[in-house]
């Protein structure tokens, strides 16, 4: 049954253009793209802290990283990417203990701009096999300007302006706008901004598993009609694959069932 969901947080000062969400240590991280900061909310919806840094320039995608050094109720390091300059950033969380944590922001990658806005979605994995090589501590990122999915190995410690290792590039990617993982086989789930297709990719073989148009609108060269920007795959309680995606044309959250 369609519904409006539950309101987690409403009318909090400083929430401006929330673009990406990630849960970590009992907290909700929000990439606040218009406010150029990251908001951290408590489980009851109250604002815990606002993270600011000169490197933040329209945070869009956000994902948590390795939690090996964080406690049950502590934040771990996380990653975000800017829509205004295509920088990929790591936010290290330090000195928690009984006091407030401190945050250190480091650039770990630099993509090409795609016009004035480059919306980079992110997903962290403990390991990923690409071809015959297994990479550890991997940050996956979509590269809209180059129709590419890239991987940054050792993401918890690297820094720089590299473009990562190419996992897949080219057709049928068509300005990718969202990235998820198939929990059953580790395939990549990518939604395209310029044709409203969902694409499934096998990162190990570099092969296309399939494509499916999930919004019927035709997208013109200016991007009018583009609907998709968020996607996530889950295993439901019955053990089935469900793929959730946001549709900007209908302003809805939808689900595909296998």
């Amino acid at each position: 049954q369609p519904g409006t969901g539950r309101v987690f947080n409403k009318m909090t000062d400083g929430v401006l253009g929330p673009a990406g969400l990630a849960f970590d240590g009992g907290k909700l991280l929000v990439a606040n793209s218009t406010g150029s900061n990251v908001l951290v909310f408590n489980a009851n919806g109250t604002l815990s802290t606002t993270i600011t840094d000169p490197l933040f320039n329209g945070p869009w995608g956000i994902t948590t990283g390795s939690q090996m050094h964080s406690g049950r109720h502590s934040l771990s390091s996380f990653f975000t990417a800017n829509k205004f300059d295509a920088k990929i950033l790591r936010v290290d969380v330090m000195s928690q203990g009984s006091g407030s944590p401190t945050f250190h922001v480091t650039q770990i990658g630099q993509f090409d701009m795609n016009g004035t806005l480059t919306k980079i979605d992110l997903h962290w994995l403990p390991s990923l096999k690409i071809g015959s090589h297994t990479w550890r501590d991997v940050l996956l990122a979509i590269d809209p300007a180059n129709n590419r999915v890239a991987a940054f190995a050792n993401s918890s410690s690297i820094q720089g302006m590299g473009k990562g290792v190419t996992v897949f590039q080219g057709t049928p990617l068509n300005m990718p706008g969202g990235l998820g993982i198939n929990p059953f086989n580790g395939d990549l789930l990518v939604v395209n901004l310029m044709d409203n297709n969902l694409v499934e990719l096998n990162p190990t073989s570099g092969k296309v598993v399939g494509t499916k148009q999930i919004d019927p609108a035709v997208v013109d060269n200016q991007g009018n009609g583009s609907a998709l920007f968020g996607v996530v795959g889950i295993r439901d309680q019955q053990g089935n694959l469900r793929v959730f995606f946001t549709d900007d044309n209908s302003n809805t959250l939808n689900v595909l069932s296998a």
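The chain has two domains: 1-169, 175-258. The domain at 1-169 is CATH 2.40.10.500 (Thrombin, subunit H).
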